[in-house]
Amino acid sequence: MSCLIAVDPRHPSGDALAEAARVLRKGGLVAFPTETVYGLGALALDERALARVYEAKGRPRHHPLIAHVESEAQARALARSWPETAARLASAFWPGPLTLIVERAAHVPAAVSGGASSIAVRVPSHPGARALRAVLGEPLAAPSANRYQGLSPTTAAHVAKELGDCIELVLDGGPCDAGIESTVVDVRGGAPRVLRPGAVGLEALTAFAPDLHMIHPHPAAGETRASPGMDARHYAPRALLLLAPTCDEAVTMARSLAEREGRPVGLVVREAGVGEGVPGLVKKTLPGEASDYARLLFATLHELDDEGVCAIVVQAVPDEPAWWAVADRLARGSTAER
Ligand code: TXA
Ligand code: MG
To answer: Which residues line ligand 1 (CB under 6 A)?
Structure first.
């Protein structure tokens, strides 16, 4: 089992950071909190450390990782070119939950990008993540600290549950603020394209990139995906995740599933006072505001998995820009491709 060190997320102790840096410099793996979800850190320029990330996550080798850097200047040093859009978005949103895809510089190992000629870079805003990177002094590969296709972790306990046996250290800085991953934007030539909606809202992005394109996450048969992270099944709980158009339909669907299966079923709605007292239902009420909902979504799905439900029925979220990141995660978590 990996070692877990509690840290003050605003002011992590020098000892904890020094220990994490020591593990990382030896090619080890350290999970740490960011403003989005917990990251699985490894030296971004060390091929052996990168190989361990893929192994720990059970992630296919062609699926690229994100590199955390300290500044726009350090991001540029990993890139072959730095388009004007990258500069504009970096100065508007860094440090923060925005990941930019640019061309990868020749000296950066292809493994960080799953062999692709591009690289994903971001400057996190979380003080603990920044302090760790500063002590380390070099770029840190940091995909979400979960097994391939599973739920992202928003607490250290989520990380320990899934990866505790295959990483050296977890820095526990409490629950993550955003609770949903960074927004990924490809800025290589032409109009910038959103490959993954995330913690930076699309309306905020559009203010700085009016020509922004949204890529449809589920391409037609035969088309290639713009980003391997857009695989249809992703962000999924162990239990079968089902979406119901309305709250009433969610209750009905969950109740009949629980009766039919004779096992508990999770119900996730945004309205209090529904589905109470129905046998076999484990009900969670999430907030009606999109960013509050996002903060709690993965933790709620983790909890329901831990409670051993056989299925989770979720009331669909509004079809509005503020909800796109949440809707995207629910759609992929609920895909039938299992
Ligand atoms: O919020 C986040 O971004 C978290 C924190 C820990 O930084 N990290 C994270 O990493 O979510 P990961 O590896 O779980 O997701 C990275 C996403 C994936 O969808 C991946 O396919 C995409 O970014 N991506 C990374 N490099 C890419 C590239 N070169 N081209 C296209 N997509 C890329
Ligand atoms: Mg991930």
So the answer is: 34, 36-37, 39, 63-66, 97, 99, 101, 113, 116, 118-120, 142-144, 181-182, 184, 195-196, 227-229
Tell me the domain boundaries of the chain. Answer: 3-214, 240-333
Q: Among candidates 300, 38, 297, 39, which has minimal Cα distance to 176? A: 38
Q: How confident is the model at residue 22 (pLDDT cuts 50, 70, 90)?
A: very high
pLDDT in tens, 312-329: 999 999 999 999 999 999
What CATH number labels 3-214? 3.90.870.10
| Residue 152 CB contacts under 8 Å (≥ 6 apart), including other chains | 37, 38, 144, 146, 180, 181, 235, 298
- CATH architecture of the domain formed by 240-333: 3-Layer(aba) Sandwich (3.40)
Q: Is the pLDDT of residue 202 over 70?
A: yes
Ligand 1 atom closest to 39 (CA): 6
Q: Tens of pLDDT along 68-111?
A: 999 999 999 999 999 999 999 999 999 999 999 999 999 999 99
Ion ligand 2: protein residues whose beta carbon lies under 5 Å: 144
Give, using CA atoms, the residue closest to atom 18 of ligand 1: 229
Distance 307 CA to ligand 1 centre (A): 29
Q: Exposure string (b/e) for 28-52, b if CB count within 10 Å is 16 or more?
A: bbbbbbbbbbbbbbbbbbbeebbeb
Ligand lying closest to the C-alpha of residue 181: 1
